[in-house]
Amino acid sequence: MTDDTDDDVLxxxxxxxxxIAEDYAGLFRDVLAPRPLERALLAAFAESVGGGxxxxxxxxxxxxxxxxxxxxxxVFGVDLSPRMVALARRTQPGVRFEEGTLTAVDRPDGSLGxxxxxxxxxxxxxxxLPLAIAEFRRVLxxxxxxxxxxxxxxxxxxxxxxxxxxxxxxFVRREPEPVAGLLAAxxxxxxxxxRRARDEGLxxxxxxxxxxxRRARA
Length: 218
Prior knowledge:
globular; two-stranded antiparallel sheet; seven-stranded mixed β-sheet; 6 helices
């Protein structure tokens, strides 16, 4: 459960994705097909998870969750938006999906083998990023893996009236080095840091970054 302060922060994101869920899912159907680097990173993550369930936090319509499930990962998806969760359940019927947040994961301490936050940290303000990272560490078992994907930059991107819907949201972009520093401070070892240029052909507006980190075993 989130407290009232958390809900105040998250409400605009929930409303934004509830409004655009169907259009978003259509636009990003087969999102990994033209992205071989991302597929390779996700496959490496899947192979390196040593056991236990994996949480895809901020799963949206479930495309990436389904990809991991197809690789044999015991994965479930969590999303803030009820409409996104409903879409994911419809399009990925063999995978578990539930409503939830990045800062209050409904799982016991040390119960997960892996956590994926794939383009979901972009919806957290700077003040809540350490809270999310602490929550990732809490739910991961010692030695558990964390994979982050996000757009880089030092200025937010404002998206107004997407697909003609009357909603607006700011997307937070971050450089990977400060995020890696927060991970280290929280007890993670960063095992890989990957950055790639934006792909204009895919409509990207910023470079992309990926961090693979492991919770300390002791």
